[in-house]
Amino acid sequence: xxxxxxxxxxxxxxxxxxxxxxxxxxxxxYDLGFDTAxxxxxxxxxxVQGDAADLQRLLxxxxxxxxxxxxxxxxxxxxxxxxxxxxxVAVQGLSAALETARARGIPRxxxxxxxxxxxxxxxxxxxxxxxxxxxxxxxxxxxxxxAAKLLCEEIGRAYQARHxxxxxxxxxxxxxxxxxxxxxxxxxxxxxxxxxxxxxxEPVRLPKGGDxxxxxxxxxxxxxxxxxxCEAGDLRHQTFNIGSGIxxxxxxxxxxxxxxxxxxxxxxxxxxxxxxxxYDAYWVLDxxxxxxxxxxxxxYGTLALGIADYVREYxxxxxxxxxx
Length: 324
Known about the structure:
Blueprint (H helix, E strand, L loop, with lengths): L1 E5 L4 H12 L3 E6 L3 H6 L5 E4 L5 H10 L4 E4 L10 H22 L3 E7 L28 H21 L2 E7 L1 E3 L5 H4 L4 H10 L4 E3 L6 E2 L1 E3 H13 L7 E4 L5 E2 H11 L5 E3 L19 H7 L8 H21 L1
Parallel strand pairs: 1-2, 1-4, 2-3, 4-5, 5-6, 6-11, 7-10, 8-13
Antiparallel strand pairs: 9-12
Helix pairs in contact: 1-8, 3-4, 4-5, 7-9, 9-11
């Protein structure tokens, strides 16, 4: 199956493409740039440069590469600082992907939504209970990022209802894995700071937030979900939570790093809200629907498993870079 991965130059795009390859499919990475994907390395993949919102370019690429599925992952991370660009990439970009699917007879579009569509946690979803959110939990996004994701979900539903293009939206838990660098993701990349700093032998000190719990999803499990959605037949649901379904703390994350990396000096202070956000966005997600309908089963469902793999991947690339 030929799969167009829009936003394929980023970390999630890279790991989704590798998962598609491992499942016997042919990913075509589409993005304005491929710095992250190229830095992550591995066997060459087909790359096409283009704007996510350029409909004509997408139509041409879909025809040239005989695309059979579209996965839309493109988004501006700091949407609050660039709201017009973020809205263009998300809303116009997804609309262009859906129209490409309609015009070229591509049966399914998979979209990366996020827990941000739920907005701030409330009631029993907050600490200390962390009751998991189902896909039917009320959505009240805070800010441009979450609002754009939720609007895209509605546009996808409308396209399926009006034009018959099958649409799948994934609401990801907090992501972590190789490629989530501090330069692009800022404070959201605390996991990368802990893992990669430890492997390099650097002390890592985070002042607060060790008691905060949330749902974590490793990049390779996102890749698995993408493969499941591309391969699935008719689906009775369009929206799926993708995470581990487990409330794990930042202190536990640090402890797993120390257990995996001998001599690691990683410390995080007590307290809550390590990201320093102005609202509580630390969700735990109910993933039963994805398990039952998509047969999604997180292979790295515990932090210990995900961090162990992350350490292996990072060491491999670090050693390769030092050997050049």
